[in-house]
Amino acid sequence: MAKAKFVLKEPHAKTETLIYLVYNYQYNRFKYSTAEKVNPKFWNKNDQRVKASKNFPEHPEFNARLDKIENGINNAFRKLLNDGIQPNNKNLKDALENELSDHILKPKKTTLLEFIEDYIEESKLKKSIGTVKVYNTTFKYLKEYSQKRKKLNFENITLEFYSNYVAFLNIEYNLASNTIGKHIKTIKSFMNEATDRGLNDNLDYRKRKFKTIREEADTIYLSIDELKRIEDLKLSASQRLDRVRDLFLIGCYTGLRFSDFTEIKPENITSNNSLIEVRTRKTSQRISIPLHQTVRRILKKYNNKLPKAYTNQTMNQYLKEVVSLAGIKELIETSITKGGKIERTVLPKFKLVSTHTARRSFATNLYLAQVPTISIMKITGHKTEQSFLKYIRVTQKENADKLLTHPFFN
């Protein structure tokens, strides 16, 4: 049974907020902006209409407009069925706008940039801070492109836009290829969401050539021997370095992200101090990790109450000091494509270490220790073996050494 309802974009707002039409039909969901706005204090959630209030004297006309839209979506759905057409979000949107095409009550069409701005506001309640930050950065570049090069809307997101936009990010901002790839991926996410809501019917962004750019990153990992050298450092004279070292090692032996290994609480230590059980912040997965002896020692040192972490940026700065003190100074050549050009740099290994090196080290060291890939993925959260294998860092020699113990070579 198809059913229409009206919901507020921000039901707890103190100022006017958009009203959306939500239409559930045949196990599908169609969401449509009415372009009408109301202060939530005048909204009756049960009736899904504006309250009859002397402080809102235009309520009869306002509710009549919502009635018109509700009748319009019901008529549109019924006509599609009567004409033998299977309803979907695209033809339902077209049929609804045809019903409202008298231009008296037809809602204003949402533009691409307006949609993205609204979607980012919605995401602040549902997505992680990091994800919202990526959304905002992508939005900033799109707005600047729209101002400097070509005004953007849904119909402009074509293969021609793709080529011009990648060149724009290369030339104007000298961005790394992987950064550009992240922004293309985010644009595709915006377009998918808009398409699902019936706001967009241009599907060029789904074409094979509208691809997410990805360059294999020259990231490093720390071996078990290197981690032991870090663990053996005498840092009692520097509380800040001692704290950073301990937190980093927790990450190296749990595989948790910085946002998770710095938030471990006593209640996360379970099964008679043999497991860490946490719900990850980024993916909301609940995972269980056996306690490595190094983790046990560090937890005991702090009575299962880990010290407060510095910010990620500050931790990365101090971490380089710690790894340098451990003598991990092997020269590493890295390359990155920026502005369409390959840049090569040679740096001592300690300068390439960051908090994320902990998670990569965990995955790589377990892989080299012959732990089944599926068992590691249960902790790291990788969905496919292909994505997992791109994540670990194994040299050709390490791979050969690993294969020496395989039955095929014996």
Automatic annotation (TrEMBL):
InterPro entries: Arm-DNA-bind_5, CB, DNA_brk_join_enz, Integrase-like_cat_sf, Integrase_catalytic, Integrase_recombinase_N, SAM-like_dom, Tyrosine_recombinase_XerCD
Pfam families: Arm-DNA-bind_5, Phage_int_SAM_5, Phage_integrase
Keywords: DNA integration, DNA recombination, DNA-binding
Positions of the Tyr recombinase domain: 217-404
Protein's GO biological process: DNA integration; DNA recombination
PROSITE patterns, per the entry: CB, TYR_RECOMBINASE
Record domain Core-binding (CB): where: 110-195
Signal peptide (from-to): none
An example molecular function term from Gene Ontology annotations: DNA binding
Family matches, as PANTHER family: PHAGE INTEGRASE-RELATED, PROPHAGE INTEGRASE INTD-RELATED
UniProt record similarity statement: Belongs to the 'phage' integrase family.
The protein's name: Site-specific integrase
Organism: Lacinutrix neustonica
